[in-house]
């Protein structure tokens, strides 16, 4: 397991917030792990949030049950969004959000370039490893990712 991995829930997580989810792991170290559910759209779009009511409609994703008061994002456009943390050679976490909003609004960034999440998933040190060992999650090969890519 490493950052940049995809994991998929197993039937052990049915009837939980993680039922039928695929997560992208953005951080994995001796402090724990962080990731985002990438296959569950949030029922509202970004422009339906008061702070972004003047921009183009853009989908939001339910990133996870932790800190649903904040937005997080991953992207593949470091040429347009500065300050992101590299997760893989082509996927970045965070960066200049105002720049991202500007590029979304003028259609320079598309849904293939960026995913915006409400909340995230987090685990303490070794907690995710224990959940994988007990069979709650399966680590996917990139070829197993339904989109065979970041999004």
Automatic annotation (TrEMBL):
This is YqgE/AlgH family protein. Pfam families: DUF179 (PF02622). Belongs to the UPF0301 (AlgH) family. GO terms for cellular component: cytosol. The lineage of its organism: Bacteria, Pseudomonadati, Bacteroidota, Chitinophagia, Chitinophagales. It comes from the Bacteria.
